[in-house]
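We modelled the chain as a single entity of 281 amino acids. Its sequence is:
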Amino acid sequence: MQDFLNTPIWDGKSLADLLTLEFLASIVGNVMSAVAILVVGFIVAGWVGRQITKLGAKYAHLDDTLFKFAGNIIRYVIIGFSCLFVLNTFGIQTTSIVAVIGAAGLAIGLALQGTLSNVAAGVMIILFRPIKIDDFVAVNGQMGTVKDITLNFTELASVVNVQIIIPNSQVWGNTITNYSAYPTRRAEWEFGVGYGANLAAAETIIRDTIMADPRSHVDPEPFIQVNNLNTSSVDFLVRVWCDRTEYFAYQADMKRQVKEALDAGGIDIPFPTRTIVQVTD
């Protein structure tokens, strides 16, 4: 029994050594130090991550998405270093662990190529910024406002406020239509009038109605011309610039206002009709 107690079993120490109060006290001290390091590490990581993220929100000219990404990366780095300090506290050599983690990471990477492609695409999206948070975009057949961009996926809120999650590889690898990229947009309408209508008067009514709206831009100059001679109407093509944020309401409002103005001006707006002739014997 005495030989068993004196046999080295861990770090050169025998069971008798491990059962001493001094050693047990050192173990308890190491555990408490490890817990303290982890708690402080998580607190510092969270605080630093939030501060970096707040920088993007504090200054309008800085990109929120980039700072949010940087905040998350730094937070994970601090947590990782905290875990290494904990291992050193228990006397564990971290160099060998890092090598094992590297080898395991390579194996996991080969097994999770699809996930890693999303991560790589997420990095490209964040670095090159084809889209940003709060942009209104159309991606991979989906349309909505960008709510979040993570390393794995991009979150959109649809027009009816439904959450849409798109893997980053399908965002970066597809055509992206960003309706928020430029400050102005060009609204376009087509208004048809009857063949018997006074075209000059119709054009004046359309122009005056649209340009009277304060949302219409004078520069660039609006385009209002006869564009098509349809089967039952003469069609005016109208293109006017407006602010991006007012585009949808502006385009809908002008349809109604022009229709009411043409009615008030006595300009006929044709619609398809069908005449049925009944032949009787």
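As a brief sanity check on the tokenised model: The chain has a mean pLDDT of 81. Strands lie at 8-10, 13-14, 136-139, 142-149, 153-157, 163-167, 176-178, 184-193, 223-229, 234-243.
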